[in-house]
Structure formats: C-alpha cells, structure tokens
Amino acid sequence: MSPDIHDIITNRLALVSKVKDVMISSLNLELEPDELAEDSQLFGFGLGLDSIDALTLIVGIEDAFGVHLPEDMPHVLRSVNTMADFLMEKGVQHAH
Questions:
Q1: 54 membership: H or E segment, kind and range
Q2: Is the terminal CB of the chain with fewer CB neighbours within 10 Å at N or C?
Q3: CA separation for the pair 36, 20 (Å, rounded)
C-alpha cells in the first residue's frame, strides 16, 4: 500500500473515531463508539436524533474540528461516514 493511501485511510479512521466520540459526548449518548454504525442514519428511523440533537451535534463538530457546517448541507449529518467525508473534503487532518 502506498504511503499516500495509507495516510488517507489512517486519517479517515481517526476522523470516524473522533466523530463518534464527539457524538457520544455532545449528545450524552449511553453508547460505546463501536455501537455506532458508520452508515446508520442518525435521524428518523436510525439513531432517532431530533432537531435539538442536530444543533447540539453541529456545535460539537464545529468546536472539535474547527470547521463550519453550512446550513444548506443537511446531508452532512446523515451518518458518521457522511460527516467524516465532509471533514476530509475540508482538509481536516486527524482530530484536533
């Protein structure tokens, strides 16, 4: 595996882990990180989060990663993976 691909994979795994940690701490979830599936929907029939949870999560993600989540991109909050994808697109390297 080339170093570039290895670095990308390592960064993505670190971001996924940190996103889960931020979700658990921000939302006071009584879950372990391995209980949060990366592709599970966070709202509705998935984890069952609501609009207040969304605001809390947005603040947590913005604080933890130093990014701004635009209001016109609600799909970013669809799952752990969509948040990690967004963070990678913004150039976030590992967790701050």
A1: helix 51-65
A2: N
A3: 7
